[in-house]
Amino acid sequence: MKILVCISHVPDTNAKIPFKDGKPDLTGISMVIAPYDDFALARAVELRDATGGKLTVINVGLADTEPTIRKALAIGADDAVRVNAQPTDAFFVASQIATVVRAENYDLILTGRESSDFNGGQVHGMLAELLGLPCVVPCMKLDLNGRTAHMYREIEGGKEVVEVQLPLVAGCQEPIAEWKIPNMRGIMSAKTKPLKVVEPATAEARTTVASYQAPPARGNVKMVEASNVGELVRMLKEEAKVI
Amino acid sequence: MNNVLIFVEAENGAAKKSSLEAVVYGAKLAAQTGGQAVAVATADLAAAHAPEVGLYGADRVLHAANVAQPQAAEIAQLVAQAAEQVQAGTVVLAKSIAADLAAAQLGVKLGAAVATNVATLPDLAQGFVIGRAAYTGKALTQVNLAGPRRVLSIKKNAVGLSELPKAGALESFSPSLAANPIQVKEVQKQTGELLLTEADIVVSGGRGLKGPENWGLITKLAKTLHAATGCSKPVSDMDWRPHHEHVGQTGIKVSPNLYVAVGISGAIQHLAGVSSSKTIVVINKDPEAPFFKAADYGVVGDAFEVLPKLTEALEKAM
């Protein structure tokens, strides 16, 4: 069983992000594995342990993403690939990962359902389409029975139980597994696990972010006494006009 | 390639409201590009409901009577074939779980630029520049989609609903679809309940409700407001409520007209899922709850006292 987990390197979700000259200013902000990718990685570690397979993580990013990749190795991945390029858009990233997958034939390719920076949720779908593989998203449960994957897929207002033969691509979310925290042994061994750097294949981004701004602030909150909810109803009706 | 193709998802025979918003978006875009707005729907749209699609701006409606309840892969195939047939430069889908995956697959099939969660009509003077949130609601971005083709999934309230009456003539359309390797074995879905992503009003509860046995207070208020119900992450983590009701960074992101948060402190991860709501009401007994800073209206009070009174006042007012 060869498992590949695709991880994004994103700002800590607790961080406030300042914007300068139409761009996010990430100076001094700690960077992490994107939360949904962390769920995918956690389940992949469990499946690798259960099947005795091999777990590789891949990231498309410049050298500054290596501490994040090392963290994934500390959590339990066996080795890592970094495609040495700025992850300019989903199509570019999916194209890079597809190139690596074509040479390696993974059985199971997991990503998070979306990254917490661009929130596009497109890489898994594009990757699957480029490779001609089925794609299940958002995957909340994933068990393997030989080459058959049993999965829960969230739908609006509920979930579906689906079955697919490997190989496949899945975009994961909770509660597929609990996030794993690296232990000391993992952190020490991560330093010597293989991290291969490959140069990007030719692919063009199809989208570009022209500018960023902080969202407009809400006006001051209007407080209503708990004993006077009738006033709240009036304001929702006459002022906000939402009921 | 001035034509715009809109995929219309339907349920119980009628187009979903989110899809009718997508039709409005597509019609407004077609008016800008000087093309036609063509809708494509499956057998899930009953012919009797097709005129509604015209009412919101579709010049024509391609009706694939041979496809029902499509998964993302089928949506991608049928929309790609329709896009070729009508020479659509832009494909518009209403954001949904299946539509977002179909959008990514369509991007590859059509060689198109893709943007999900689109919040504005494009600025064509600058190329094809749309607005969408990034950093999970902490930023607004302007994104340029390089031509010649684009696929957009649009979020609720991007343009809203307004009638733009067009002919909307039904035309039969027969896409050829490959067998789907993903077998759906079982569907567990609550029927008769308003979906979070479709609702104009959402009422969410947090840990302040103290236990799942108290959820009647939330559902009663929601019912009075014709709202969908949501919850915070701790509530779904503790299994008080199912995961598909979890609103926030790692759950559902909503953009209703009115979001009412009860007993939710307002962690940054929860705010990420609700920040694009038009109006936010926060009810919390802790006056220091950070959510008040992100709210339009606030009530400091115990949910167990405030909710029954609020529900009663609303029943009288509505």
Note the total helix count of chain A. 6
Q: Could you name the ranges of chain A where pLDDT drops below 50 across 5 or more consecutive residues?
A: none
Q: Which percent range fits the helix content of chain B? A: 25-40%
Q: In what order do the strands lie side by side in the largest sheet of chain A?
A: 11-10-9-12-8-1-6-7-13
Please outline the major beta sheet of chain A: 9 strands, mixed
Low-confidence stretches of chain B: none
Mind telling me which CATH architecture of chain A this is?
3-Layer(aba) Sandwich
Termini separation of chain B comes to 47 Å
The greatest interface here is: A-B, 77 and 92 residues
Please give the count of helices of chain B.
8
Quick take:
Chain A is an alpha/beta fold and 243 residues long.
What do these coordinates show?
The complex is a heterodimer of chains A (243) and B (318). Chain A has 243 residues and is of the alpha/beta class. Chain A has one domain (2-210): Rossmann fold, CATH 3.40.50. Chain A is built from six helices and 15 strands. Chain A has helices at residues 35-51, 66-75, 90-104, 123-131, 184-190, 229-238, and strands spanning 2-6, 9-11, 19-20, 23-24, 31-33, 54-60, 79-83, 108-112, 135-145, 148-155, 158-165, 168-172, 195-198, 207-213, 222-224. In chain A, the strands form three sheets. Chain A has a nine-stranded mixed beta sheet with strand order 11-10-9-12-8-1-6-7-13, sandwiched between helices. In chain A, strand 9 and strand 10 (148-155) form a beta hairpin. The model of chain A has no long low-confidence stretch (mean pLDDT 95). Chain B has eight helices and 17 strands. Chain B has two domains: 3-172, HUPs (Rossmann fold); 201-317, Rossmann fold, CATH 3.40.50.1220. Chain B starts with a strand and ends with a helix. Chain B is globular, with a radius of gyration of 21 Å. Chain B is α/β, with parallel strands linked by helices and 318 residues long. In chain B, strand 15 (258-262), helix 7 (268-274) and strand 16 form a beta-alpha-beta unit. Chain B has a seven-stranded parallel beta sheet, with helices on both faces.
